[in-house]
Amino acid sequence: MKLPALGGITAPTLVVSGADDPLFDPRAGRDLADAIPGAEFVLYPGMGHNLPEELWDDIIARMPAGRTTGESAGA
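-> structure tokens emitted (75 positions)
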């Protein structure tokens, strides 16, 4: 897959993919995250092309703005 020049992105980046997404294969999310320096990739089993409400708290906690300095995504 050809991606635009993403290597210059310096903002903290979270890429979220659903394992059951009918529109985008999760590999596309992985490729996107790999192209952005320091990006975190998260694959949610059972998730399609939506963000189900039961995952909102976990997704928000993984977002850089949802964390405090030095806090890891797993905390």
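The longest strand covers residues 14-18.
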